[in-house]
Amino acid sequence: xxxxxxxxxxxxxxxxxxxxxxxxxxxxxxxxxxxxxxxxxxxxxxxxxxxxxxxxxxxxxxxxxxxxxxxxxxxxxxxxxxxxxxxxxxxxxxxxxxxxxxxxxxxxxxxxxxxxxxxxxxxxxxxxxxxxxxxxxxxxxxxxxxxxxxxxxxxxxxxxxxxxxxxxxxxxxxxxxxxxxxxxxxxxxxxxxxxxxxxxxxxxxxxxxxxxxxxxxxxxxxxxxxxxxxxxxxxxxxxxxxxxxxxxxxxxxxxxxxxxxxxxxxxxxxxxxxxxxxxxxxxxxxxxxxxxxxxxxxxxxxxxxxxxxxxxxxxxxxxxxxxxxxxxxxxxxxxxxxxxxxx
Length: 343
What we know:
Distance between the termini: 74 Å
Structural class: alpha+beta
CATH architecture of the largest domain: Alpha-Beta Barrel
Helix content: 10-25%
Number of strands: 16
Shape: globular
Number of domains: 2
Largest sheet: 5 strands, antiparallel
Strand order of the largest sheet: 7-10-15-12-13
CATH superfamily of the largest domain: Glycosidases
């Protein structure tokens, strides 16, 4: 059976490495087939793998998702590329590397912590540095300082000279890493970027770089629900109608999600290029505005399109979504600006 085959293979591999003066380190899946001798377990699916490994007498390294995955955003106001789970610097600092339920003897098998940074959505070295720093400082103190010697407020005080060192060295660290209060969206009349809007399902977004740079050489970053690209612009004052500017772009659908691809919503278009549809108070029913995307489809970077919204009393939530002929490429938003309709 599968488990027997796995434990046989892992044991053969472990024995081979040991014979050559090495020791196997494996993700916590290696425990699924049974106990692998002379192996260290890297626990990434939470902390349960570390607890199980320690109880079996294995050394273990804590690298659990999402807290030790630094490809997740670090501030609720962060629109940088990466995954949308919020992993704050304080969350990293306060992580407990010896999970509850371990005895003192078992906790000795925890030989360290590891942060991971998956870069499939980080296309520049600057983006990688931004995601590492300054959270790597919190990880370092967590790993090297006994619990009794760690104090968050003292750590924050010591960050000021540390940031000065980063500046001297030219390290492009995230300056919003200590900003943990989510800001309200910009007021109507100003640009409201996609990460400052809600997804229609309140799902965790994925932030990705545009493939192409604009005329200024800057790549847009799109915040999107991979399975249902749809955005909510909350509390729009439509008492005088609205003139909406929308910056749109396209990204290739190159995510390897196997059978989950069947769960991606693709809305049937009326034209070969797709449309942007805007609805009021709901994502169902007839749209109040439809924008043809033929011209935008010929631009590899972002394109600003316009829509006129009819006057309605009071404030309303606007639902913005796309139709498209297929899953690849996928239409996405960059920013929206809503102003009163011209008289």
